[in-house]
Write a structure and sequence with these properties.
about 500 residues; alpha/beta; TIM Barrel; nine-stranded parallel sheet
Length: about 500
């Protein structure tokens, strides 16, 4: 016979208290009653100087953390003067070719007082090294720096495409960063394992969590194989999730992800440190849900998505701007996006209760359903040999493509209504004022690079790049060699090219 006490025990094992294993109800016992989530607005465009001005503006407006967007050449390891960079310099993020650019980017921003997130993957080690050296020049030691590098290469092969090296050397770079930061940067999150881009590519909420956690296990296994202990690096793992429009599904998704991760770390990996079991995550509202039609509607969408992230227990949050389906956000749009978070935090009262929806029959049932479906996916990926093997076989990519196709068909059939797109449309919409990146940015970036190369010590550059090349042939941790090269103003492209020549470049099947 099933007794009431048995039911209570089962509920306790699935839910627990806030701040307690398995963290279904949040990773902190007081959640936002102790401190609000970090309001970390993503910013970056044009030159380092322009982005520095936007950073300082957002901090003055009450933002509590920085989040850096890099342009496409930077993301794939090319300097602004490379032929492949033509027409792309500063367009979707800030252009960073050298330590000199990074110094301008963080000018008058005290790195011991802000937390900085950098959305960078294939060349993450190089950008992290630049950030470290900027801190040194400010008199801030490594152990005082806090923030996050995305550093999640597997999702690039699955969904985003800004990869450079093949999987094996890419995983080596990631574990090198884990090892280096565990010893030198204890306050830095060494990876932000991203479901965001998986969801942007068209996945379902379940696929977003499943594929993200599968990739996370691959990183954990790689670090363990490299000789690291689970509790040496796991407390600095962080995650990055999307927030879409299905309000309750999104909240349940975050709760299920926390519970699955806690159990994996405890039962599969034997982690002892409580922080190793806690899935901490940043959330960004859904870029793919934004519409170019009636862009002011996006303010409402973003508000609902941000509220779902908060009720789901996020640790930091970026709210998209209303005009991002059309262009980079204007200053006014960026301010409205930040104010959305502030109104939720200071005026709505939702932060006064630790877990407002905990115990809801619908919420707990939905959380259980998502958990079961995620675990089913993880079992399939295990049977394929893990995330890397599943990616190489195209499994995750196919699943995402199929989900994206079904969603698009549903919109075309009007089974799913998108306000302003397939219903409630208006004629002759007025296009709002948009931000434009001046074409002179590319010319100026090239001129700055030329000047830098004329002023720096070329012998020191060649010496450090040669040392990096030799280290790449060995089993040495590459971070100290990259730091040495950055300090003498070797460029992003020069450092990446050394690694390209030694590691090769990834070619999708």
């Amino acid at each position: 016979m099933y007794h009431q006490s048995d039911l209570a025990d089962e509920l306790e094992s699935r839910l627990g208290e806030p701040g307690a294993y398995p963290f279904t109800r949040g990773v902190q016992s007081t959640m936002y009653r102790g401190r609000f989530w970090t309001m970390r607005q993503y910013a970056g465009f044009g030159s380092a100087k322009q982005t520095n001005e936007r950073f300082r503006y957002l901090l003055q407006q009450g933002q509590t953390g920085l989040s850096t967007a890099f342009d496409l050449p930077t993301q794939i390891g090319y300097d602004a003067d490379h032929p492949f960079a033509l027409g792309e310099v500063g367009k979707v993020g800030v252009s960073i070719s050298s330590l000199a650019d990074m110094e301008v980017l963080f000018d008058k921003i005290p790195l011991d007082q802000v937390s900085t997130s950098m959305t960078i993957n294939a060349p993450a080690a190089i950008l992290l090294a630049m950030y470290i050296v900027v801190g040194e020049k400010q008199g801030v030691s490594m152990d005082k720096l806090s923030g996050t590098i995305q550093n999640d290469i597997l999702k690039e092969y699955v969904a985003r495409g800004t990869y450079i090296f093949p999987p094996t050397p890419s995983m080596r770079l990631i574990t090198n960063i884990f090892e280096f930061c565990a010893k030198k940067l204890p306050k830095f999150n060494t990876i932000s394992i991203s479901g965001y881009h998986i969801r942007e590519a068209g996945s379902t909420a379940v696929q977003e969590v499943a594929f993200t956690l599968a990739n996370a296990r691959a990183y954990v296994n790689a670090a363990l194989s490299a000789g690291l202990h689970i509790d040496e690096f796991a407390p600095r793992l962080s995650f990055f999730f999307n927030a879409h429009n299905l309000f309750f599904e999104e909240i349940a998704k975050y709760r299920a992800a926390r519970r699955i991760w806690a159990r994996l770390m405890k039962e599969e990996y034997g982690a002892q440190n409580l922080k190793s079991l806690q899935l901490r995550f940043h959330t960004q509202t859904g870029g793919s849900t934004l519409t170019a039609q009636q862009p002011d509607n996006n303010i409402v969408r973003v508000t609902l998505q941000a509220l779902a992230a908060v009720l789901g227990g996020t640790q930091s949050l970026h709210t998209n701007s209303r005009d991002e389906a059309l262009a980079l956000p204007t200053e006014d749009s960026a301010r409205i996006a930040l104010r959305t978070q502030q109104i939720i935090a200071y005026e709505s009262g939702v932060a006064d209760t630790v877990d407002p929806l905990g115990g809801s029959y619908y919420m707990e049932s939905l959380t259980d359903t998502i958990e079961k479906q995620v675990l089913d996916y993880l079992r399939v990926i295990d049977e394929m040999g893990g995330a890397v093997s599943a990616i190489e076989q195209g499994y995750m990519q196919r699943e995402i493509h199929n989900a994206a196709y079904e969603t698009q068909r549903a919109i075309e059939r009007k089974d799913e209504i998108v306000v302003g797109v397939n219903a409630f449309t208006v004629e002759n919409e007025k296009v709002p004022e948009l931000l434009r990146v001046d074409e002179s940015i590319e010319r100026e970036a090239k001129e700055h690079l030329l000047h830098l190369k004329q002023q720096r010590d070329e012998h020191a550059v060649e010496s450090t790049l040669s040392a990096l090349r030799n280290a790449a042939k060995s089993d040495d941790n590459l971070m100290p060699y990259i730091l040495d090269a950055v300090r003498v103003y070797a460029t992003l492209g020069e450092i990446a090219n050394v690694l390209r020549e030694e590691f090769g470049e990834y070619q999708p099947v």
